[in-house]
Write a structure and sequence with these properties.
Blueprint (H helix, E strand, L loop, with lengths): L3 H6 L9 E5 L4 E3 H17 L7 E5 L4 H13 L2 E4 L6 H11 L3 E4 L4 H10 L3 E4 L7 H6 L16 E6 L9 E5 H15 L6 E4 L7 H13 L2 E4 L5 H7 L5 E3 L2 H8 L6 H4 L3 E3 L1
Length: 274
């Protein structure tokens, strides 16, 4: 395959009307629509001067558009560097110095604090907000909805994920196409994910569980998601009747257990993963 990760996760869904996600506001987004956004973003990365293998730091609110930046990086051969939106400027300075990105995309609320950091490290700064708007989206709006997928190999770097840094400064874990693809293939098989699955997705996408597990499994299986910006018990209760599975951290489940509306009838058709 010319780009194994893109071919396996995305290519077969191009122009598909199949549902990818239901968003917090109730709007539906198909696989085809999502990949048109990703193609616009891939073209935008190219117009920003991104070359093969260069890095994009992404510190933005969770949205369909922020997930599309990941697909755009895969399609264009850029390396995604997702960063916790809770990190402060000093921490971002370290990540930018260490990762040496060509482009940083941040929440517009943080633009002023990151402007000098990006200037010091010769990185272009753009913004993307919680509803998928701001400067990066404005650049993308002028771009075509198709992009010639860049050739990549299984050994090529696809993402750089910084650890929590519990024993010192965070270190960037290099994730290849092979790693991400084989991980998703194994989990789809072991967890028996199919296009009929509906995932309640309330995890953040700046770390491995929300992005490289939950999202990648969905793409590979051709499943759909209830794609929420964060975990709220009320939303979970409302979406569970239509969901078949949920992936979460322990606090999700403890919060649910504290709610009297959680009962066997509500979740007996679901499979939970931690």
């Amino acid at each position: 395959m010319p780009n194994p990760l893109y071919q396996s996760f995305f290519e077969r869904h191009r122009n598909s009307d199949a549902l990818l996600m239901i968003q917090e506001d109730g709007s539906h987004l198909s696989y085809g629509e999502f990949l048109e956004i990703a193609a616009r973003f891939a073209n935008t990365l190219a117009t920003c001067g991104m070359k093969l293998g260069e890095r994009v730091v992404l510190q933005v609110p969770k949205s369909a558009e922020s997930l599309a930046v990941y697909a755009a990086c895969v399609q264009s051969g850029s390396v995604m560097v997702p960063v916790n939106k809770g990190h402060i400027a000093d921490e971002i300075d370290y990540f930018v110095e260490d990762a040496k990105p060509k482009l940083v995309i941040c929440d517009p609320k943080n633009r002023d604090g990151l402007q000098s950091i990006c200037e010091n490290h010769s990185a272009q700064l753009e913004t993307l907000d919680a509803v998928g708007e701001e400067s990066f989206a404005s650049l993308a709006a002028q771009q075509p909805m198709d992009f010639l997928t860049v050739e990549r190999s299984l050994d090529d770097l696809a993402a750089l994920l910084y650890t929590s840094g519990t024993t010192g400064r965070s270190e960037g874990a290099m994730l290849t196409q092979s790693y991400l693809l084989s991980n998703a293939e194994t989990l789809v098989e072991m967890w028996r994910f199919t296009p009929s699955n509906v995932l309640f997705h309330a995890l953040p996408i700046f770390h491995t569980h929300g992005l490289f597990v939950a999202s990648n499994i969905t793409f590979l299986a051709g499943s759909s998601m209830n794609f929420m910006p964060s975990f709220k018990v009320q939303q979970a209760i409302e979406h569970f009747p239509r969901a078949t599975t949920m992936m979460g951290v322990p606090t999700f489940y403890t919060r649910l257990l504290d709610d009297a509306r959680l009962n066997r009838d509500l979740v007996q058709h679901m499979r939970p993963f931690i």
